[in-house]
Specification:
The chain is an alpha+beta fold. The protein has three domains: about 70 residues, no CATH class; about 55 residues; about 100 residues, no CATH class. It has five helices and eleven strands. A hairpin with a 3-residue loop joins strand 7 and strand 8. The longest helix has 23 residues. The two termini are about 20 Å apart.
């Protein structure tokens, strides 16, 4: 059995920004119960019903995560491979992505997401749709549910940022198409993060975490179990 202890400090201003994606991954009811947050009838916590420390006061939440229940176990080259959900995944929006995400229409209890503008003019932009039903997902295409989904905002790439990233001096149709694919990929990865589609593996004494998509975790584990 493996165990990780996750300790985080929050100020009042940081509380919701930090907990918001974790709430989506681990379930509103479970996390609210752990952290002593108030819960509405629909399971979505609101600011006024949640316990928040006085301004400027740091608090510490320590959560012991027991990983004795892998979601998948298989044998590879005579070694046992365990695949686990990663409960402490990092948001891909912290990786310095090229796209600028602007989501003014977010679920109740969230803060508006606005990553600002890049450098130069917009060369590619896609709508971002959000689904909020027992968790949160985002997509560049509409969801099939008209009641719990909507267009939440957009994601865009700016000319100078794109040229710098690719070491180019001029735009081209090929580069513009690449920008569109980048935006789709960024939104897909962010949706995986929000929905908890992030994994780790354990092979004997070795483990690694932060794989977005279970197939990525499986293939990495197989490389280790050679």
């Amino acid at each position: 059995m493996a165990r990780r202890v996750v300790t985080e400090r929050f100020t009042k201003s940081e509380l919701w920004d930090t907990l918001q994606p974790v709430l989506s991954q681990r379930g509103y009811g479970q996390l609210c119960k752990e952290f002593g947050l108030g819960i509405l009838a629909d399971g979505m916590p609101e600011d006024q019903e949640c316990w928040v420390p006085p301004t400027g006061v740091e608090i510490t939440f320590t959560t012991e995560i027991h990983m004795n229940n892998p979601i998948e176990i298989f044998q590879h080259n005579g070694k046992t491979v365990e695949i686990h959900h990663d409960p402490d995944a990092e948001s891909p929006r912290e990786w310095g992505p090229l796209g600028k995400l602007v989501l003014p229409r977010v679920p109740r209890g969230w803060r508006e997401i606005n990553e600002g503008e890049g450098s130069g003019r917009v060369v590619a932009s896609l709508p971002v749709y959000m689904l909020s039903h027992s968790g949160v997902a985002v997509s560049t295409s509409p969801f099939g549910c008209p009641w719990d989904s909507w267009q939440a905002g957009t994601i865009s790439i700016y000319r100078d940022d794109l040229l710098k990233a690719y070491g180019k001096k001029r735009m081209s149709p090929k580069l513009r198409q690449q920008a569109i694919e980048i935006l789709k990929s960024e939104v897909k990865t962010y949706s995986q993060y929000l929905s908890g589609d992030v994994y780790g593996y354990v092979v004997g004494e070795e483990s690694c975490w932060g794989f977005y998509g279970i197939e990525e975790a499986r293939e990495a584990a197989k490389e280790v179990a050679h």
